[in-house]
Write a structure and sequence with these properties.
This protein is mainly α. The chain is 81% helix and 0% strand. The radius of gyration is 26 Å and the shape is globular.
Length: 371
């Protein structure tokens, strides 16, 4: 009973996004109390995968598979364990071992589309494109109606910020239904998060082929194109998004950003004003308008807008921009105080490093002024 309680506590911790190391400690204790439960080993293997311990995960999957064979466990459970082991072998480049695991898994449960799709990914990596295509076709024949299920699982993975699992699941949805618009949108979001801007724009284009009148899709593709440096294409998408739905502040803020980058200060200012009128809480519009005022050396409205942006959402970018306005005003003490305070609330080390560098610059600028 105690081992089962520990296992349930670990599973709840996983479901609620707790630290995986804490859940792993609970599973270690549960397995120590009852080492003959295949499901405990499978759960611990999942935690090892999350913590990037692939060989430990493989060892647990191997022990789980042995127990399931020995004790006459569920064929479905054994098939899943073998497929998971196949994925790990494939990620390690052990293609022969992966093929064996997938083959046994499919022998046990032949009508399992996800295993076909997993093996297709492996075979593509191994240069066996024709075999991969056959696996995808087999998955489509078996599970043509499962694309929504994979998509929904991918959304769940995105909610817990597991980009690897989300990309895998959205990929499965698209392999089963290449025209799945929502999966293309979601995959575009994943690609944006990972800095693959061309891929993001490509997926959003596929979604737009099915839904050309959706303003949000043009807006998201504009962001992908903008991130990839395709300013003219981004501008065209922002224009279309605004034409389709002129009530959305982010559309105007996005177009204003592109106009500012292209040197159209008047057009950018007009867009930022419109965005703020539509939504006084539009962080991007306040922030970008503050930068535009700073570039025009209008430091009083620049300070006002950047302070407002920070009130709406405290970001490293707005903090740095406001500190630079203070420096331009000659108030180096205020700049350094703001920057040092931000170090206590900004967790990302890359952002903290940029802020420390800005503190050093402000200190250097302050020294001549105080001699």
């Amino acid at each position: 009973m105690e081992a089962e309680r520990l296992c349930q506590e670990a599973r709840q911790a996983i479901a609620h996004g707790a630290e995986p190391a804490r859940a792993l400690a609970l599973m270690d204790e549960a397995i120590g109390l009852d080492p003959g439960r295949a499901e405990y080993l499978s759960t611990r293997a999942i935690l090892h995968r999350i913590l990037k311990h692939p060989e430990k995960a493989l060892a647990d999957y191997g022990r789980a598979a042995d127990l399931l064979r020995k004790n006459g466990g569920s064929i479905g459970d054994l098939s899943t364990v073998l497929a998971n082991a196949g994925v790990l072998h494939g990620e390690a480049g052990r293609f022969d071992e992966a093929e064996k695991s997938f083959a046994e898994a499919l022998l046990l449960v032949p009508a399992h589309p996800e295993i076909y799709l997993q093996r297709a990914r492996l075979r593509l990596r191994a240069g066996r494109a024709d075999d991969a295509a056959r696996d995808v076709n087999a998955a489509r024949e078996i599970g043509a109606g499962l694309s929504d299920s994979f998509y929904n699982e991918g959304v769940t993975a995105l909610d817990r910020n597991d980009l690897d699992d989300a990309e895998r699941l959205f990929g499965f949805a698209l392999q089963l239904a290449p025209g799945h618009a929502r999966a293309h949108v979601a995959m575009g979001r994943v690609c944006l998060e990972r800095g693959r801007f061309d891929d993001a724009a490509r997926h959003l284009t596929r979604a737009l082929e099915a839904h050309p009148g959706e303003a949000d899709l043009h807006y998201h593709r504009a962001n992908a194109r903008m991130a990839g440096g395709l300013w003219e294409d981004a501008l065209a998408d922002f224009e279309e998004a605004i034409r389709l739905d002129p009530s959305q502040a982010p559309f105007f803020s996005g177009r204003g950003f592109v106009r500012r980058r292209r040197g159209d200060a008047a057009g950018a200012m007009k867009d930022f004003d419109q965005a703020i009128e539509l939504d006084p809480e539009c962080h991007g519009a306040w922030f970008q308008r503050g930068l535009l005022f700073q570039e025009r050396r209008e430091l009083v409205p620049a300070e006002r807008d950047l302070r407002t942006a920070l009130t709406i959402q405290a970001t490293p970018e707005a903090t740095l921009a406001l500190a630079r306005v203070f420096q331009d005003q000659g108030d180096f003490d205020k700049a350094v105080t703001l920057l040092r305070h931000s170090l206590s609330i900004i967790p990302d080390e890359k952002d903290r490093r940029a802020i420390r560098e800005e503190i050093e610059k402000a200190d250097r600028r302050r020294q001549p002024a105080t001699r």
